[in-house]
TrEMBL record:
Residues 1-24 form the signal peptide. The keyword Transmembrane helix does not apply. Keywords: Heme, Iron, Metal-binding, Signal, Transport. This is Group 1 truncated hemoglobin. The lineage of its organism: Bacteria, Pseudomonadati, Pseudomonadota, Gammaproteobacteria, Lysobacterales. It comes from Alkalisalibacterium limincola. Heme binds at residues 83, 107. InterPro entries: Globin-like_sf (IPR009050), Globin/Proto (IPR012292), Hemoglobin_trunc (IPR001486). Transmembrane segments: none annotated.
């Protein structure tokens, strides 16, 4: 009798394994969730052309930052900038398409810390300030980017 109960418990636990695996592998978040209500913010960034100019400044600032340069020095900077333009454009309700990878995949194995993440946000703020983007518009974009730290920061 006891043996049968043990076998039943074991079978139940085994049956739960696939459920656990499915739960553990939660799908990555949408890397470029569209916010049509932020279309006016995109205008304050100077539209898509403004984002292209912003990303040139942003990348140059990061490459001059000893904390961040090692991450980007040997990456395909043109591709990263292009994908960032697309990503920000979609988030800000523009008629663009994001063609890059999701945030988990594009940052996997880079061992990015919370400190690195904050440093990158500071450099983005510097770039936005230099381009005269209004403070409120900056924060509306940053509010959409901030939750992505969950998929980008590894340690
Ligand atoms: C909210 C913050 C961030 C956003 C929205 C973001 C967005 C992106 C995007 C769109 C790409 C291009 C993906 C692709 O080409 O498929 C990318 C690549 C990359 N990101 Fe980030 N990123 C963020 C934070 C960071 C941080 C904190 C670091 C490091 C300190 C970092 C380092 C990199 C590197 C090195 C690549 C290129 C990877 C490669 O060449 O394979 N990112 N990121």
């Amino acid at each position: 009798m006891l043996k049968h109960i043990r076998m039943a418990v074991a079978a139940t636990l085994l049956a739960l394994v696939p459920v656990g695996l499915v739960l553990a592998q939660t799908a990555p978040a949408d890397p470029a969730p569209a916010h049509p209500e932020l279309r006016g913010v995109l205008d304050q960034f100077g539209g898509e052309a403004g984002l292209v100019a912003l990303m040139d400044d942003f990348m140059a600032i990061m490459l001059a930052n000893p904390e961040l340069a090692p991450f980007f020095e040997f990456s395909d900077q043109a591709m990263v900038k292009r994908h960032l333009v697309e990503q920000f454009c979609v988030i800000l309700g523009g008629g663009c398409t994001y063609t890059g990878r999701d945030m988990v995949e594009s940052h996997r194995g880079l061992a990015i810390t919370r400190g690195n993440f904050n440093a990158l946000v500071e450099d983005l703020q510097t770039a936005m300030n230099r381009r005269g983007i209004p403070f409120r518009a900056q924060n509306q974009l940053l509010a959409k980017l901030a939750p992505m730290h969950r998929e980008i920061v590894e340690r």
